[in-house]
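User: Here's a chain of 321 residues. Predict its fold as C-alpha cells.
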Amino acid sequence: MRSDGRDAKGRQSCRALAIAGLLLVPAATHAAAPVVAVIKSGAPAPFERATKAITAALRQSPTQPEVLTFDLEGDEAKGSAVLDRVRRAGADVIVTVGSLATASALAATTKEPIVFSMVLYPEQSGFLRNGRDRVTGASLDIPTDVQFDYLRRLLPAAKRVGVLFHPDETGAVVEAARGPAAKHGLTLVPKTVGDRDDVVAALRTLMDDVDVVWAVADGHVFTPQATSALILASLRRRVPLIGLSAAHVRAGALAALSCDYEDVGEQTAALALRVLQGAAPSSLPITTPRRVGLALNLRTAEHLGLTLPPEVAAEAAETVR
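Assistant: Prediction complete.
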C-alpha cells in the first residue's frame, strides 16, 4: 500500500510537470515580432500621407511587425542620432521617406536592409550606387512613356518638346527620355543650364524653337525663386508648360501629372514585407507610381488659344477654371 501511494504521488508529480511544461511552451517558442523603423525626412503633407499608408499597411499585414517612426525634421544633422536609436531598437528593416532620410540611412554604417519611399530619380541621386544589395524602394518617377502619352493626347499638334536641365543633376534623365519621346512622335529639344545661368533667359531662348516645354524635377531650374518667373514667361510667350505638380498648374502651368502618395506608401510597405519574409532587396525592382492624376488649368488653355481634347480634359483629377 505504501508503495502504491508513492507511485500515485509520482504519477501526479509527472502530470503536474508535464502540464507546467505545456504551459511554458508558447512563451518559449513565441517569436518576437519583427521591427520596422520608419525614418521620415520631415513632415510635409505628402510625406505624412505616405507614412500613414506605410504604417497602416505594415500593421494590417499577417507579419504584424512593430513599427517605430522617427522624424529628421528636415535637419541632416539629426541623422546620426536617429540611426543610433534605430540600431538600439533592433530594426530588421529600415524604411525611409524622402531623400534626406534615405541619404542619412545609406551614409550610416548600419547593415539593415533599406526600403526607400518618396524619392525622385534614385539612380541619378546615387542611392543605388553603393549597397544595392541591401536597397530597394518605391520611387516617385512617373515613367516618361506615361508622361509623353498624356502630352501627345493633350496637345496632338505638338512636335517639338523643350526641356531645361542641369547636366549633373538630370542629364541622364533627359537623355533616357529621348526614346520614349520619339515613340510618341515627339522630338526632344534639350537646353542645358549652368550653376549661374539665368534660367528664365534660357527658357525664353528655348521657347523660340519648341511647341511645348516639359519640366523635369531639376533643382537648378525649378528653384523657389525661379519657378513663378518660369511659369509667367511661358504665359507671356504663349508656349504651354507641362509642370511638375498641381501647385504649378494652380500657378499657371497648363498641366501636370501627380502621384497618389498613399499608393506609393502601400507599394513601399509591400516591398518592406517582402524583405521581412526573406527576399533580398536587390531582387526587388524599384517601383514607379501605379496611380497618376492629371491636373489642368483651363484658364491657361484659353489664354494660350488651345482647345483641349474633351476626352483628356474629362480625365483630370483637378481642374483650374
